[in-house]
Every structure is written in structure tokens, then in C-alpha cells.
Specification:
The protein has helices at residues 9-17, 30-35, 58-68, 77-88, 101-105, 120-128, 130-135, 151-157, 188-199, 228-232, 249-264, 314-324, 340-362, and strands at residues 45-46, 54-55, 93-95, 111-116, 141-146, 166-171, 176-179, 220-222, 238-244, 271-277, 294-298, 306-307, 330-331, 337-338. The chain is α/β, with parallel strands linked by helices.
């Protein structure tokens, strides 16, 4: 804000340094000076969308620079101004694009994404996230994205595409996402509360889940995210889960081996085999499922996950189960796992045959 079009050289220097990122201009109309509360010219103001405008305070900036820089380093006024503008003019909320996707979501900083459409409700929701963006600046990135256009991303994060606007916090570093319930109105207060609860570890991750089949014959059954705790964490059973995807070639190769393993141990009532399709379901983050296929045993009683890292053949897998299951099965004549009842039945048959042979020899 200047008078008679005059401004200091450092302003032009800052404009030259940041010309590709920001728009610099000068104004001198009295009504504009009054609107910004400017009583002295020249003054330098950053006009920021969604947050208060900011006035350049040279003395305060010099103090901050002196604290941050070595005393032997002299920082010019033009560079001080450039640094100040670069730090303070950063957009609080940016549209998520292919170009900035990695910097916003993959830089180790969690990101809040507002999935919007062209409705008035979405326009109001965009305004509602600026308060949280100001409060959590530097700790959470804030982005908007067209939820109707990028439905694949919405579904991947557990957002229902036809229920827009919607808000989700994505934490790629910890492989988790947190979707605001669709029944919660998107307001300044609710978004701030969501971010605060996230920062304090009070939110439960949102897990995508497919529908569970109504009936399966086995011996391998399907488990989904919604039924995982109920079916896998049953303390009375040793449970083996094959975490797989539909697009993984190694998963497709391992599938028949896993089914054969389950069939060979079908007689063991305390041992259950499940497949978990990560394409449509999210595993619990603490399980750290990062490669596929991943075979995990959840022993009866303590349910501490044991990841299998050996060779993917029936003999090696059988030995692994024999060593780590809590409810110990018997080993059948063919090296497969069998129940004690079946082992007793086989033993009875063998004893009967032996008895008959001995009787025949005596005769």
C-alpha cells in the first residue's frame, strides 16, 4: 500500500524472488487504506484467503532473523522480506492434484482431505476447514478434491462418493485414515475437534470393508474388516489368515497351496483358515501388512500375531503350524495335522490290524 506509486527497493526484490509463486501489486486509493486499517505509507500487506491479512513488521522480522541466523551472516532487508512473505503467504488449503499429491500426502505429514462437489453444501464446507487449517498449520496439510471426479480415491479411503461433502484425515506414514462420520455436520467446530482428536490419538482408524459371504463350504473361509475381530480373535481357536490381493500374481500362485493346506488340516476343529482380500478391505494398521501374500497365525488364547516367513509349501507350513498353534494337534501318517479324535481312531485301526496279524501268526 503506497502513496504516489512509490515503494521501497526490497519490495521489488521480494517480488522478483517470488514472482512464480505469488502476485505482487501496489495500490494507493484511500478507501483501500481504510479497509486494511493502514495509517502509514508505504506499508506491505499479505492478503490471505481464509485467514486475516498480515502487515509487514520490519523490526519484528529482524529479531526473528537474528535468532535464526548466525551472527556473522548478514541478511539483507530484501531477503528478510522474501523470507517473511514465503513463510506467511503459504496457502492454508490447496486443491489436491497429481502434481502435488506426493508433497501433500506422502511427505510424512498427515493430510485432511475435503471431498467436495458443486453443491452449496460443499462450498460452505470448504470455508469451514480454514479455522482448523490455521490452528494446525505445519502439523496437518489441508486439501480439497472433487469427490465426484476422484471416486476411486474416495472409495479407497472409505468415503462414500454419493455422500458429499466428506472429510477424511490420511496418515500415510502410519498407513491409516480417519473418516468423519457422514452424520456429523462439517462445521468449523467439528473439523477442529476432528483434527484435535487425531493429534491426541483419540480417533479409531476407518477400515474399508467388503460384505461377508452369506455361506461358504470351506475349508477356507472369507473374513472381511468388519468381521475380523469377531472371527479371527476367537480365543478358543488357532486362526490362520492369508492376506492377499486380487491383482498380485504371487497371491494367485499361493492360493492353491493355502487351500490344500487347509484341506489337509480340515479335521482339526480348533484350527480355522481365512482369506482376507486387501483389495477391498483394510487390515488393522498395527498388523503391519505391507507385502502380499502375507500369512499370519493368530494363536488361541493370547492372539499375538505370528507372521510366517518360511517357504510356501505344505510341508514347511505344516511344521510352522505344528510348532506355533496353542491347541496342539496330532500329526497323521501322511504328515498332515489331525485332531486327537482322528489320531485315536487311526491308532485303534492300526492296533486292530496288528492284533489280527499277531493272531494269524499264532494260528
Amino acid at each position: 500500500v503506497v502513496e504516489n506509486g512509490e515503494y521501497e527497493d526490497f519490495f521489488e526484490q521480494g517480488a522478483g524472488n517470488l514472482k512464480d509463486q505469488l502476485i505482487f501489486g501496489s495500490v494507493s486509493k484511500p478507501e483501500i487504506l481504510e479497509a486494511f486499517g493502514i495509517k502509514k505509507t508505504p506499508s506491505y500487506v499479505i492478503i490471505r484467503h481464509g485467514q486475516p491479512s498480515l502487515l509487514w513488521n520490519q523490526q519484528e522480522q529482524e529479531k526473528q532473523v537474528d535468532q535464526a541466523k548466525n551472527e556473522e551472516m548478514k541478511v539483507s532487508k530484501g531477503m528478510q522480506f522474501t523470507i517473511w512473505v514465503a513463510e506467511q503467504a503459504t496457502r492454508l488449503v490447496e486443491a489436491l492434484t497429481q502434481e502435488n499429491y506426493l508433497s501433500k500426502l506422502g511427505a510424512g505429514v498427515p493430510a485432511l482431505i475435503l471431498f467436495a462437489d458443486d453443491s452449496a453444501g460443499s462450498a460452505a464446507a470448504v470455508k469451514s476447514i480454514y479455522k482448523a487449517a490455521t490452528e494446525f498449520k505445519g502439523r496437518i496439510n489441508f486439501c480439497t478434491v472433487n469427490g465426484a471426479r476422484y471416486q476411486t480415491l474416495a472409495v479407497k479411503l472409505g468415503v462414500t462418493p454419493h455422500l458429499l461433502p466428506a472429510v477424511a484425515i490420511v496418515d500415510i506414514k502410519n498407513q491409516s485414515q480417519f473418516v468423519m462420520p457422514s452424520t456429523t455436520a462439517i462445521t468449523e467446530e467439528s473439523v477442529v475437534e476432528l483434527c484435535s482428536n487425531f493429534m491426541h490419538g483419540k480417533l479409531k482408524p476407518t477400515l474399508r470393508s467388503a460384505k461377508e459371504p452369506e455361506y461358504e463350504e470351506g475349508p477356507v473361509y472369507t473374513v472381511v474388516a468388519d468381521s475380523f475381530n469377531r472371527r479371527v480373535m476367537d480365543p478358543s481357536k488357532d486362526v490362520v489368515v492369508n492376506f492377499r490381493t486380487t491383482w498380485c500374481g504371487f497371491c494367485n500362485l499361493f492360493g492353491p497351496i493355502f487351500h490344500a493346506l487347509a484341506a489337509s488340516a480340515a479335521d482339526v476343529e480348533t484350527l480355522t483358515f481365512f482369506e482376507f482380500d486387501v483389495t477391498h478391505n483394510d487390515p488393522e494398521p498395527h498388523l503391519n501388512i505391507t507385502s502380499f501374500p502375507s500369512l499370519v497365525l493368530f494363536p488361541a488364547k493370547n492372539k499375538t500375531a505370528i507372521h510366517y516367513t518360511g517357504e510356501r509349501n505344505i510341508a514347511s507350513l505344516t511344521k510352522f503350524l505344528e510348532e506355533h498353534v496353542s491347541v496342539k494337534p496330532e500329526v497323521g501318517p501322511e504328515g498332515n495335522l489331525i485332531s486327537k479324535r482322528e489320531a485315536n481312531r487311526i491308532k485303534a485301526i492300526v492296533d486292530s490290524v496288528k492284533s489280527s496279524l499277531l493272531t494269524g501268526e499264532q494260528l
